[in-house]
């Protein structure tokens, strides 16, 4: 059984989660959006040459499999980002998906390629 939450209830739950060291509801939603955008983009990596979705630099090998596989999502990232993710795991401080270049920029190359596909 489910019910709709009021804004106040979501806010209270969000604050409680944050105080326990979890993501706030707002952060969770941003991460979910970023994750969806990354998932939609992943298959296109095999078809075209793209910048690194994490840092946005044009340093990717044109053969996707010759880049680093992200530890956060099923997607290829540049070698330097791959190393950074390994270091993040080591120190236990993981950069949110919402801070990736692909998530931050509304007009990231995604739109152009999806239009080209149709
Ligand atoms: Zn990168």
Description:
The chain is mainly alpha-helical. The protein has one domain (about 5-115). Helices cover about 45% and strands about 5% of the residues. It has 5 helices and 2 strands, in the order ααββααα. The protein has helices at about 5-20, 25-40, 80-90, 100-105, 110-115, and strands at about 70, 75. The chain has a two-stranded antiparallel ribbon with strand order 1-2.
The SSE string, one letter per element, is: HHEEHHH
Alpha carbon gyration radius? 17 Å
Bound molecule types:
zinc ion
Give, in spatial order, the strands making up the sheet with the most strands: 1-2
Q: What's the structural blueprint in terms of helices and strands?
A:
Layout (H helix, E strand, L loop, with lengths): L6 H13 L5 H17 L26 E2 L6 E2 L1 H13 L9 H4 L5 H8 L1
Antiparallel strand pairs: 1-2
The structure holds zinc ion.
The site of zinc ion has 8 residues, from helix 3.
Short description:
By secondary structure, this protein is mostly helical. The protein contains five helices and two strands; from the N terminus they run ααββααα. The radius of gyration is 17 Å and the shape is elongated.
Attribute tags:
118 residues; mainly alpha; two-stranded antiparallel sheet; 5 helices; 2 strands; 47% helix; 3% strand; binds zinc ion
